[in-house]
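Long-time lurker, first post. I've been practising inverse folding by hand and with some scripts of my own, and I keep getting stuck on stretches where the structure tokens seem ambiguous. Below is the full token string for one chain I'm working on. Before anyone asks, I'm not after the true native sequence, just a reasonable design that respects the backbone. If someone could post their per-position residues I'd love to compare against what I wrote down in my notebook.
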């Protein structure tokens, strides 16, 4: 798994241009998710996120069937998981530009640049390199 880091400029229309080394092609649908502490924004390919959510929902059904959680609790978990997407999907345009959600920019306090760390199936976006390093050292 190759990990790629980049410092990306955020223009006045909330767009970032994704470098070629990230492997994202135009017309790719991207889903946005916050982490629990709202310190980063994760960008997932639509297919990857759908697979991860389906797998999670199957595990909840299995826990319910095995009696680990009751029906009411399984419904609560499913509602939470289905509501996990904070923002609608965005499509990468022909110039590999991606519009960031206004709320994400506000919550993460992103100004002119953002810092991305990507692997094969998703991209984590941080306000700056310091935010990434701080989180990395706490893990």
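-- Answer (accepted) --
I ran through it position by position. Result:
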């Amino acid at each position: 798994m190759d990990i790629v880091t980049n410092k990306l400029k955020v223009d006045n229309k909330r767009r970032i241009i994704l470098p070629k080394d990230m492997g994202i092609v135009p017309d790719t649908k991207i889903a946005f998710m916050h982490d629990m502490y709202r310190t980063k924004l994760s960008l997932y390919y639509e297919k990857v996120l759908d697979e991860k959510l389906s797998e999670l929902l199957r595990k909840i059904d299995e826990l319910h069937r095995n009696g680990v959680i009751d029906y009411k609790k399984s419904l609560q978990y499913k509602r939470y998981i289905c509501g996990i997407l904070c923002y609608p999907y965005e499509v990468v345009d022909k110039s590999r530009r991606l519009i960031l959600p206004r709320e994400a920019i506000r919550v993460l306090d992103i100004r002119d640049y953002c810092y991305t760390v990507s692997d094969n199936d998703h991209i984590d976006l941080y306000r700056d390199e310091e935010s990434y390093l701080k989180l990395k050292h706490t893990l």
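A couple of notes from the structure itself: Residues 46-65 form the longest helix (20 residues). The radius of gyration is 17 Å. Happy to go over any region you disagree with.
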